[in-house]
Amino acid sequence: MRGRVMLVWAAAGAASLAGCGAAPGPFAQYPGAKRIDRVVDAQVLREETEIVLTNTTAAALPPGRLWLNNWYSREFEGLAIGETVTLGLSGFRDEFGGGFRAGGFFATRAAEPVVAAQVEPADGSPLIALLVIREKAR
Predict the structure, then answer these.
(1) If DSSP codes are grouped into helix, strand and coil, which group holds residue 44?
(2) Is the Cα torsion angle 133, 118, 113, 110 positive or negative in sign?
């Protein structure tokens, strides 16, 4: 009887470890090995639970992945010259699926500040840093 119980526990342990070698989930890990190629004059402004991106450069920002604070990311469709887009902070996830602490009226924890933003182009080229505006002008 004891041998069967041990066999069941061993099978359960093997089954739980089988997921460890599986393909990575839908969440990305920050590409720390990539260098930042340039800083562009595209501005990121935090508005409560959203960010507003405005491309004030003379070139479009390429599609790829948008990174905040070198930890949270989401898919990025690119940004045309002069275009402005508003993105909800709740759409940004870390490599483990955890969400950005956006704050807001019903938040139970303090909001996380936005201190860095980069675009990781889908073509594999180096990161592009954006200007983060820390506080709204009064």
Answers:
(1) strand
(2) positive
CA angle at 116 for the pair 112 and 121, rounded to the nearest 5°: 125
User: For residue 24, what pLDDT is reported?
Assistant: 43
Residue entry with tokens 């009226």: 105
CA 57, 115, 104: angle at the middle one, nearest 5? 110
For 66, the enclosing helix (H) or strand (E) is: strand 64-68
Amino acid type, 60: A
Structure tokens at 94: 């870390």
Q: Looking at this protein, which amino acid is placed at residue 122?
A: A
Specify the pTM.
0.74
> Which residues face 84 on adjacent strands?
54
Residue type for position 44: V
Q: How far is CA 36 from CA 4, 44, 76, 115, 124, in A?
A: 57, 17, 17, 16, 12
Q: What is the pLDDT of residues 20-69, one digit of tens each?
A: 433 345 688 888 888 898 999 999 998 888 899 999 999 999 999 999 99
Tokens of 50: 């959203």
